[in-house]
Amino acid sequence: MPCRIATVAAVALAVSSVSADDEGEWSRFRGPNGTGISQATTVPVTWTDADYNWKITLPGTGHSSPVLWGKRIFLTCSIVEDAARIILCLDAADGRTLWKREYSSETFNQHRDNSFASATPAADAGGVVLTWTTPKEIVLLALDTDGREVWRRDLGPFVGLHGSGTSPIIVGDLVVLANDQEDLHLYDYLPKGMIKLPKGVIGKPGKSSLIAVDRKTGKTRWQLPRRTVLAAYSTPCVYQPDGAGPELIFTNAGHGITSVDPATGKVNWEVDKIFSDRCVASPVTAPGLVIAGYGAGVRGTLYVAVRPGSRERGIGPKVIYQLKKPVPLVPTPVVKDGRLFLWHDDGKVACLNVKTGREIWRERIGGFYYGSPVWVDGRLYCISRKGEVIVLAASEKFKLLARVQLGEKSYATPAVADGVMYLRTLSHLFSLGGKK
Questions:
Q1: What was the pLDDT predicted at 297?
Q2: In the prediction, which pLDDT does 143 show?
Q3: Disulfide engineering: 229 pairs with which of 253, 312, 376, 397, CB 3.0-4.6 Å?
Q4: Residues lower than pLDDT 70 in the chain
Q5: What percent of the chain has pLDDT over 90?
Q6: Parallel/antiparallel/unpaired status of strands 247-252 and 237-239
Q7: What count of Cα atoms within 13 Å lies in the side-chain half-sphere of residue 431?
Q8: Which pLDDT does position 18 carry in this prediction?
């Protein structure tokens, strides 16, 4: 019992810290608790090449987003030819490399728009945690602030037609990873030749689970088996109910939306049989709501807003509203000031009332998107797949504020820390803003 109390206290402290949005930190995919929200006021609305603090060429390619802790940037890259994985630690002030670590790997078939460096790292005062997969292993790795390996775990093989992409998160003294794999038996029912499966994996089922390991040692604290249906790419977040402990929120096709007690790994509540295909965008929260969606092919199919349940009070979750096509598949939404902003894969953006789902406006801005929007000083920033940054007013009236070309493809989401925005393209990193 004392161990559980200590874990609950550590997790609660972590939740309060991410809610506070420390401007020196952007420590996971989409920043504090995955919200994509920054309190920065020194990022420009529009800019030219002369306005960048610095721009550097990366030693490899990739789609992961940068994360920051203090004055250090952590970022992953890969070498296309041999799938070598590169972990960089950069000085936020000038972009110079503080250290670089490289791990050999092997190439394998995945979606043409995936990369060998798609998962975003997670950082804290102890260093950085990252993950990558091959068909033979799921690597979960911790390095300290100087790049020394603290621990490394092999979580077993990974089965996924399109590769992987979910990112780890650090919650208190835990590292949490969703390992939702694929049952390739499902493709036996498709017309012959419609899907080309990688050699050696036809009809092969993956072994899915949710896992939490000790942040300092990498030892398993709990592991929760999952039904294996379709690989998921969403990254979990934390929901903090009033008067109760924090809850980890996961999404996948096999279980829908799942709330897990981070201290024990036990399921608090679940909205099952609601998602029938891939969960790619990550879940987000609003006061009294968890919002998540899924889709198929190149478009989203359904978003739901759920009022969480309570195992202790014997109350089940309830779907408050549903948003059907058109909804996003890949970009994760932003919830801010009572509004839900949905940035669609095919260049439409919608603003809705987050409590009711009522649409306030919907406009087409053009382009195609894998990156997710972030909210900065009343504006939304999002990078198109061609590398164009779109800036919109995050208000109840649609207003296009700027279009800025980065000059290269980008599938990444911006990071914002200490008043500075970091923009990642396929092989470059830009630093913008921070000047008063």
A1: 84
A2: 98
A3: 253
A4: 1-24, 189-203
A5: 84
A6: antiparallel
A7: 23
A8: 46
In whole angstroms, how large is the CA radius of gyration of the chain?
Answer: 20
The pLDDT value given to residue 17? 45
Cα 309 to Cα 62: distance, rounded to the nearest angstrom: 38
Look-up of token digits 């029938």: 276
Helix (H) or strand (E) holding 15: helix 2-20
Asked if residue 76 lies in contact with residue 87, where contact means CB atoms within 8 angstroms, the answer is yes
Q: Which two tokens stand for residue 322?
A: 């549903």
Confidence (pLDDT) at 199: 60
pLDDT confidence of residue 119: 97
Residue 311: per-residue pLDDT: 83
Structural element, H or E, at residue 170? strand 169-171
Find, among 342, 320, 322, the residue nearest to 331 by Cα.
342
How many Cβ atoms from other residues are within 10 Å of residue 264's Cβ?
16
Per-residue pLDDT at 196:
65
Backbone angles phi, psi at 309, to 5 degrees: -90, -175
User: For the purposes of burial, counting CB atoms within 10 Å of the CB of 405, is it exposed (0-12), middle (13-18) or buried (19 or more)?
Assistant: exposed
Residue 40 contacts residue 23 (beta carbons within 8 Å): yes
- 151: CB partners within 8 A, 6+ apart: 141, 142, 217, 218
The whole-angstrom separation of Cα 361 and Cα 340 is: 11
Q: What are phi and psi of 33, to 5 degrees?
A: 55, 25
Cα separation, 13 vs 5, in Å, equals 12
In the numeric block, the tokens 């590769």 are attached to 163
Measured CA to CA, the distance from residue 184 to residue 378 in angstroms comes to 44
Q: Say what the pLDDT of residue 194 is.
A: 61
What is the predicted pLDDT for the residue at 21? Answer: 43
Question: Who's near 173: CB < 8 A, 6+ residues apart?
Answer: 7, 10, 214, 215, 216
Helix (H) or strand (E) holding 3: helix 2-20
Round the average pLDDT of the chain to a whole number and report it: 92
Q: Into which CATH architecture does domain 2-433 fall?
A: 7 Propeller (2.130)
Burial of 226 (0-12, 13-18, 19+ CB in 10 A): buried
CA angle 87, 92, 93 (to 5 degrees): 145
